Amino acid sequence: MTPTPIETIEAAAMQLPKADRIHLAERLLASLEEDDEIQTAWIAEAERRADALDSGTTQAIAIEDAMAQLRGSLQH
């Protein structure tokens, strides 16, 4: 049975010295993290929404009501 590419890469990585494996793991994990620009935009949006709730310019609604509104809009 021929090993899959990921099995081949994993086997090769496991042969690396510990420091190199740590470096590789850090790089792989970093490649999975969200783009800083996107994360910054989401934080800004969350803060904007929290400020709107705090100032009373918007009101929160129950998830049940939000889902009912969504379902209603999808049926039209």
| Sheet of most strands | none
Measured as a percent range, the helix fraction is: over 70%
Radius of gyration: 23 Å
Number of helices: 4
* Beta strand %: under 5%
Q: How widely separated are the two ends?
A: 54 Å
Structural class: mainly alpha
Shape: elongated
Task: Work out the number of β strands.
Answer: 0
Order of helices and strands: HHHH
Query: Which regions have little confidence, pLDDT < 50, spanning 5+ residues?
Result: none
Overall average residue pLDDT: 90
Structure, described:
This is Putative addiction module component, TIGR02574 family. InterPro entries: CHP02574_addiction_mod. The chain is mostly helical and 76 residues long. The chain has a domain at 36-75. Helix content is 76%, strand content 0%. The protein contains 4 helices and no strands. It has helices at 5-14, 18-32, 36-55, 63-75. The longest helix is centred in the middle third of the chain and has 20 residues, at 36-55. It is elongated. It starts with a helix and ends with a helix.
List keywords for this structure.
76% helix; mainly alpha; single chain; elongated; 76 residues; 4 helices
Summarize the structure.
By secondary structure, the chain is mainly α.
